[in-house]
Amino acid sequence: MPKSKRNRLVSLTATRKKGFAETKASLVNEIHECADQYARIMVFRIDNMRNAKLKELRTDLRYSRFFFGKNKVMSIGLGRTEAEEYKENLHKIVPCLNGQCGLLFTNSSKEEILKFFDSYRQKDYARTGDLATETVELYAGPLSQFSHSIEPYLRELGMPTSLQKGVVTLLKDFQFAKKEMHSLQNKHKLLEKKTAEFRVKIDAIWSNDGTFELLQKNNINENNNLNDSMSDEDGDDDDDDDDDD
């Protein structure tokens, strides 16, 4: 006899979804805990963000802590004014929190971190909309690296190609200008050219003795609104993504 569809178990329990205010408060508390635990806080930015590369970076700096959260909430955790700051001079970091950036909590020295990031650069394929870092030039003739099936797609990308005896052939010299942006990712992947560079830049450094050093003056948000509250709706701000190592 077939099982009745009406004979179903219905769970009467429910898990309350974590509220937005609770998420903010949790992030603020974690920032306070890390400020007590680590000797330095650094504001960092990543050029040509790649998740895979970031995972490798977290592994290399597994004794440090990375925070990617809403800038306004991280600002509240640090203290937006001298009266609100959690520790001495932490409010000086707040103007640096604008755009896509994060906080790095570490016990490593300034020299160790700067030296590490200065050499931590990895090439990857550019994405659509990125600016090329070099000019790529192809010369007229057979393009044996491409299969015949991809020839129509190459023409769509603007390359003057044709099939000659089943071989993709470039009819004239073709150049991808350094400033070219259209479909850059696809072109450079096809050519196996990695022109994007994943790298991390440090904007500012705060130490637990109260000293603050600004390294990248151009990234200061002089119009930073210090009157935002935790009840503000931040849906259009940076993505919430608190990560630790």
Automatic annotation (TrEMBL):
Protein name per its UniProtKB record: Ribosome assembly factor mrt4
Compartmental location: Cytoplasm; Nucleus, Nucleolus
Biased composition (Acidic residues): 230-245
The keyword Nucleus belongs to this UniProt entry's keyword annotation: yes
Complex and partners: Associates with the pre-60S ribosomal particle.
Claim: Cytoplasm is one of the keywords in the record: yes
The organism of origin for this protein: Blomia tropicalis
Cellular component, GO, one term: preribosome, large subunit precursor
A family per Pfam: Ribosomal_L10
GO BP: nuclear-transcribed mRNA catabolic process; ribosomal large subunit assembly; rRNA processing
GO molecular function (one): RNA binding
Keywords assigned: Cytoplasm, Nucleus, Ribosome biogenesis
Function: Component of the ribosome assembly machinery. Nuclear paralog of the ribosomal protein P0, it binds pre-60S subunits at an early stage of assembly in the nucleolus, and is replaced by P0 in cytoplasmic pre-60S subunits and mature 80S ribosomes.
Similarity field: Belongs to the universal ribosomal protein uL10 family.
